[in-house]
Amino acid sequence: LPIGTPQNLVPYITQTAAGIREKLTVFGNDYDTPDGSCVRDYIHVVDVADAHVKALSHLSSQESNFYDVFNVGTSNGNTVLEVIQAFEKVSGEKLNYVIGPRRPG
To answer: Are β-strands 39-40 and 78-79 bridged in parallel, bridged antiparallel, or unpaired?
Structure first.
């Protein structure tokens, strides 16, 4: 449970379902995606931390001028509305969400 307003979708979804947040705003529905909402490749923070540890371990066994690039994403993103709908299906909770304008940037 993050302190303050969540900046990530899943905590915002769970807080909306729990009544902590009045509603969830989906930022944009005019993207070139199947349902118009933004696509993101979601990854758990523990998986990110594990990837960093493994990368440092790999780096420590290389020569001093060595570098490499790793992508820890799944390459299988989900739209914001897909994530909302998956939560609703699994939890049985209908979320109060609205479609708003795209966020800047």
So the answer is: antiparallel
CA pair distance 88, 6, nearest whole angstrom: 19
pLDDT tens digits, one per residue of 19-50: 999 999 999 999 999 999 999 888 888 998 99
Closest to 10 (Cα-Cα) out of 21, 53, 103: 21
Residue type, position 47, single letter: D
Cα 90 to Cα 98: distance, rounded to the nearest angstrom: 20
pTM for this model (two decimals): 0.78
Identify the pLDDT of residue 36: 97
| The token pair that represents 16 in the structure block | 């909306």
**Beta strand spans in the chain (E):** 24-27, 39-40, 78-79, 97-100
Q: Is 28 exposed, middle or buried (0-12, 13-18, 19+ CB in 10 A)?
A: middle
Collapsed DSSP state (helix, strand, coil) of residue 54: helix
